[in-house]
Amino acid sequence: MSSPSLSMAIASYGCTRAIKNGDVPLRGVDVRPVEVSPIIAAFRRMVRDLEFDICELAPTTYVIARAAGVPITALPIFLSRRFHHSGLQVRTDAGIDAPKDLEGKKVGVRAYSVTTGVWTRGILANEYGVDNDRIEWIVDDEEHVTSLKLPPNVSHAPEGKSLSAMMASGEIQAGFTSRAGIGRSGAPTAGWEAAGKDDTPGYRELFDNAPELEAAWYRKTGVYPVHGCVVVRNDVLRAFPFLPDVLFEAFEEAKQRWLADLRSGAPDVPDRDKYAGVIPFVGEDPLPNGLEANRATLETLVTYAWQQKLIPRRIPVEELFLDTRKANAA
């Protein structure tokens, strides 16, 4: 019997390179890679139209989509991570000296359900006592899951205005950097970041000692924020029940090859700068896979999404992530 031919849309990272270039094949599967740039555009195509068999997805988008009944299931494979005391900039003339000073201000985020925003708002509320309901969140893009009902303190930017421009003019006093907010303009399309800007001299990070705070928070909580996860359409899972183990095995092997390069000191290892700084406190594997290894992180993300009114209940992680044989053994 011939191998199934399955489409797959994932971004290019160090940990996915060996899969995308064919060095690590998916056992028994003929993969048809689909390049989507930026990968964020694939997220909405997946949750709206189920366009791909296998797809990378922002974890908050996935949790919201599952709560809305979208027939997809995630595997405990995580393609990117970052901490979130950094990445929220404030205008230096806005009178924002501490997290609580954000209350009563306008803060820009590309879309309210952006995973970066969810992680950061959760930290602000649970670690610093910030009342997120007292902040007006300004968005300038669509939510990936169109049925999502936004809280009343979320407003859309005026027609034709970007968060970047509103931050520059002082119409908003703070904004998330890069793709999460003021570093791009408009919906996700190729080259969209060129239209935005951040790291402007008139802005500063909310936390000026973010790396130290992030390390301390991890040591206290064991939470290491996830971003890209791997999802599969439910009809594909039913047709090919062997697929979860195959995917977990392949993505783990590709990651281990990248880690070997990272540890060897080889030049030009992709994502070296992103992860080298966190290895001293998160451990030698900065991208751990598996449900149990990520339980505290996933439960925290679900709690934050529920607190922020993105989902109607705190969904058990066992309902959300398919715990494969390989994941159990990890």
UniProtKB/TrEMBL annotation:
Protein name (record): Phosphate/phosphite/phosphonate ABC transporter substrate-binding protein
Pfam families reported for this sequence: Phosphonate-bd (PF12974)
Tree of life domain: Bacteria
